[in-house]
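Reply to dn_fold:

You asked what the input looked like. This is it:
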Amino acid sequence: VSNLFIVPAFIVICRQGLRFEAVTAVFTTLTSCMYHFLEPIGIPAFGMNAGKWHRLDNIGAITCFSNLFIYLADFGNDATEEWLKYAFLFTTIILQEKAPWNVTFTIVPVLSAMALPILRPLLARRWPGYHWRNFTIGVCLLAVSFVFFFIALNERHDYLRCTHALWHVAISASSFFLWQSVTRHHDKLHGL
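and this is what came back:
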């Protein structure tokens, strides 16, 4: 149920016309729901057990992060951003297929994507146009969500998955604000 908190961010993404990001968000939400639903009951769906759904959820979640960080880098060039999104998706699929439970293969693509909005302003010598209130709230919530995520990795201490649910809520709230941070998209969202 905690996956449904992403709906407001999904609406923001759709209203900005970010189709690839919207499809990725739907994919991730559906695969995450399937994984979390099937894990406790142990019944496969569409011939896939919870572990296979979890792998798809990992691919989707990492891709969602890549998409978000590419958005925040605000290259201002749709073709560049599109190529980067596909490159991250391709790399994520390969890494997750190789070793889906190797945390390094989750952290490396996320940190690589996270470097984009940090390095781009340094190289371009100018900050992207940000709606700073949304950016600040989003980054703070992102930090909180990462804390919940890392606590929830220890399933013995989170057997009811409450901390994992808090990760979903915090990352959804963060997404809502961060997807409204880039001025050129924010203005489009609000008809300016």
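The chain is about 75% helix and 0% strand.
Hope that clears it up.
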